[in-house]
Every structure is written in C-alpha cells, then in structure tokens.
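Illustration: GGDEF domain-containing protein.
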Amino acid sequence: MQDALLVFCAMIAALLLALQYDLFYFIDALSSAQRKISLAEAIFLTALLAAGIVTFIVRRLSDQRRDIALKVAAEMELRELTTMAMQDPLTGLLNRRALIAALETAIASPPANGSQYALFMIDLDHFKSVNDVHGHAVGDQVLEVVADRFKGAARPSDLVARIGGDEFAVLAYNVDRETARKIGSRFLESLTRTIGAGGHAHKVSLSIGVALIPEDGATAEEALRNADLAMYRAKERRNGLVFFAPNMNQQKQIA
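Result:
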C-alpha cells in the first residue's frame, strides 16, 4: 500500500510537470517572470519525483532483502526438520525411516558387476539388564558409545542406523559374501572392549543377521524380515554372525 502511494505521488508530480510546460510552446511562451517561477517549480517537482523514485527503489530493495532472508530461514528450518525426521535423536545415527528409504533406493538400482548390497541387523545381547540395573540414563550412555564404535567400524560408504531401543542396522554397498563377513566381523570386534558408563564397565555383545540384496530380498520389507530372521538365529546359536538362508523361512512356518 505504501509503495502504491509513492508511485501515485510520483505520477502526480510528473503530471504537474507536464501541465506546467506545454510541449508545443514550452518555455518560450512564458514571460521572464513566469520562467523564473516555472524554473523553481520545475526544480521542486523534479526533486519531488526523484525523491519518490529513490524512496520506492530503497523500499523495494529492503523488501527483497527481507523476502530473501525469510526464504533462507524457511529453507534452513525445512532442512532441519527433514534431518530430524531421518535422524535418531540420541545417537545422531540414521533412523528406521531413513534406512528404509535407503533400502528402497538401493533395491531400485541393483549393483553392477555381480556385487550385492548387504543389510546387517544388529541386536545388543542382554542390554535390557543394563537399563534394569543401572537405569536408562546409563543405558543411553552405553548406546551412544556403541553408536560411536559402529561409526568407526563402518566403511565411509556404509549407512549405520539405530532402528529401535537396542537394535541397529547397517546397509553396505557393493559387497560379496566374504566382504560382508569381514564387515560384520569389524562390528563384532568394535565391542570386544568394555564400555565405561555410570561408574561401571559394561560388557556388551552382539548378534548380527545378514541379508544379501537382491538375493535375499526383492523389497525393503523382505530384506528387513530376512535379516531379522538371521539375527534371531544368531541369538539362538550364540553365534555372533549368521547369514540368511531360505530354510529359515520354512523353519519359521513349521514353528
């Protein structure tokens, strides 16, 4: 509204200036006295017009800067919300939603040269006792240390996620079975040392189930389910790392 008023004032000033000087007779048709008055009026009107234009430009630039600042702030807020929606707040790792999105993208783009993706489902054995005996605050400290060690064990291209209370997952790209086994071994080794939290040393062990993609899962849901089956088989056998096998589905149906 204020910008429109400034433009209106500038138009009025221009109109008065045009009326003051007839385009056909211009200043020659005026007497000397009129010329002096008209010159003063012209200077005033020109200054008024210039002031209006300058004010308008300054206001528009100010509005543009404000609009840009608001847009940048909105984009930053959106990025922060997106990050929060895809991130585990305790450990800073990816969350289940982000893992599923990455899985779906990976399955839609099968790896080349005969390689595969590997999905590791990792469960902390007997972690519940840490919470029960020492409290959830200490349990959270243990989880943070576990997350840091997992990040150190992962390759730069691997995605590490926390998908539940004491459940983690890793999506490894461009691997074969042997490479996947070595990656899993690094995660097992990362927790051979005790974890200090709450004034106590906590021993945490892992059970890991591995599903190879696309061999063991044509969809994200199937890959998660099969890796989960292998992980529970690892817990039953007290064997740290187990690869999914088709007969696990059959045994589950029989059970």
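Reading the tokens back as a structure: Residues 2-85 form one domain.
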